[in-house]
Amino acid sequence: MPTLKTSPYDVIIIGAGVNGCCSAYTLHRAGLRVALIDQNGIASGGSGAAGAFISPKISKAGELKEIMSEAHTEALDFYTTNFPNFTLVKPLLHIANSPKEGEKVESFIRDTHLKHSNIPHKIQTLLSDEAQNAASIYFDTGAIVDAQGVCRAMVDGIDFYCFKAEHITHENGLWQVGNLHAKHLVLSIGAYPKLLPVDYVGLRGIWGHRIDIETSTHIPCILHQHVSISPTNKEGIVAIGATHDVHYSPFSGEPYDLVQGREILLEKASKTLMLNNIIVLADYTGLRSGSNDYLPMLGNLVNADATLAKYPHIRHGQAVNPTDYLYYPNVTMINGSGGYGFVLAPYLAKRLKEFIADGFEMDPILSPSRFFPRWAKRQS
Ligand SMILES: Cc1cc2nc3c(=O)[nH]c(=O)nc-3n(C[C@H](O)[C@H](O)[C@H](O)COP(=O)(O)OP(=O)(O)OC[C@H]3O[C@@H](n4cnc5c(N)ncnc54)[C@H](O)[C@@H]3O)c2cc1C
User: Fold this and answer.
1) Does any domain span residue 55?
2) pLDDT surpassing 80 at residue 2
3) CB of residue 19 inside a 6 A radius of ligand 1
4) 46 C-alpha to center of ligand 1: Å?
């Protein structure tokens, strides 16, 4: 445990993944006193396993596409401006991995404002027949960041405490976590147990495995198809990832089969291009925390018991305006970024800072309370 801090912080953040680190960085730069807590260290959860590609999400028109597009632009600017040493900028070739995805790629090409061009001949010749014949888009700019390096750099100079937060209490307008106190509490705990009784928050953990390899094949750009294959900012190292395994959970106690995971990754990579003389250098595994509706979460948390006590008929479908729900005071959850945590973190952290430091409202579309009414109906 850290030594007792008598004067309270402005904000305690639990969880030092990319969301916690980026929030700490942004709030600290805005002049707030921030304490960051993690049970295992910086980027020890899903974030430490990430690729971490700053790639646009290829999706059809809608809210998700709008948010992802804005987040992608902000993220490219954020990492290249503030953390250039941890960011490798390269062109990005996205190749559809199925006919259905091909339709999304075609529709994305029609709408996107992102600069894209024809695939250069030297890249085309590297690709398998399957990859050459699939729908694709070649962006002039993509990026990959060093996940662990950038998280550590973001929290340089910020008070970090390594312990597991278990009992969270609120007294006299302050949250207490261990010996730490603050007016605001931010929960950026990824796919781990939620710490407050907020079962309505619709999240699921999706296990992922990626590897770093050495290969004699030169990879000139970032490639996404069945998996991503990319140069990294570590000389000679190519990143391959990641798997999406909805069945495996590290909380089950079952061991994860690393050898089989590597085989799956290399087999998927081989559908895009031939990699020669491969040596696997490192494995990275972790849980992504994805929301049930694919939108990320940024917002205050409904106190379910208090709200159901005040509006018992919500259970039977009574419509109550979310502004009338009862919320835990000054608690914000950031979560549900799925496979796009590094893309979304600067976007979410900026809006968290605008809420805490500048008094702006958060976007209700992102609020975790969106899951509350449907959950409440199941409580009858
Ligand atoms: C294999 C893989 C590849 C990925 N590739 C990409 C990619 O290319 N691009 C991209 O944008 N995203 C990628 N992602 C997704 C991205 O990593 C996640 O969206 C992101 O890590 C979510 O970050 P987070 O901060 O919300 O959660 P996490 O990184 O999981 O952090 C949560 C932290 O909270 C801590 N914690 C939880 N409970 C407690 C407690 N009670 N007390 C103290 N500490 C606690 C945990 O120890 C953990 O460190 C990938 C993920 C995986 C697994």
Assistant:
1) no
2) no
3) yes
4) 3
Atom of ligand 1 nearest to the CA of 190: 27
Domain identity same for 226 and 283: yes
Does residue 367 share a domain with residue 309?
A: yes
Is residue 299 in contact with ligand 1, taking CB distance under 6 Å?
Answer: no
Flag whether 14 is in a domain. Answer: yes
Token look-up 């790639």 returns 55
Q: What is the pLDDT of residues 263-306, one digit of tens each?
A: 999 999 999 999 999 999 999 999 999 999 999 999 999 999 99
Q: What residue numbers bound the domain in which 318 lies?
A: 9-45+150-202+293-377
Mean pLDDT of 77-103: 97
79 belongs to a structural domain? no
Number of domains the chain contains: 2
Q: Whose CA is nearest to atom 15 of ligand 1?
A: 339
> What is residue 234's predicted lDDT score, i.e. its pLDDT?
86
Dihedral sign computed on CA atoms, order 55, 59, 64, 67? positive
Q: Counting atoms of ligand 1 from 1, which one is nearest the CA of 207?
A: 53
| pLDDT tens digits, 28-62 | 999 999 999 999 999 999 999 999 999 999 988 88
Choose which residue among 189, 201, 232, 268 to substitute to test ligand 1 binding: the one with the highest number of ligand atoms within 8 A of its C-beta: 189
Q: Is the CB of 44 under 6 A from ligand 1?
A: yes
Structure-token match 């509350």, residue found: 372
Q: Quick check: 227 and 240 in contact, CB under 8 A?
A: yes
pLDDT band at 380 (very low <50, low <70, confident <90, very high): confident
Domain membership flag for residue 131: yes
- What's 129's DSSP letter? H
Task: Tell me the backbone φ, ψ of residue 248, rounded to 5 degrees.
Answer: -85, 135
Distance CA 356, CA 348 (A): 12
User: Is 244 in the same domain as 310?
Assistant: no
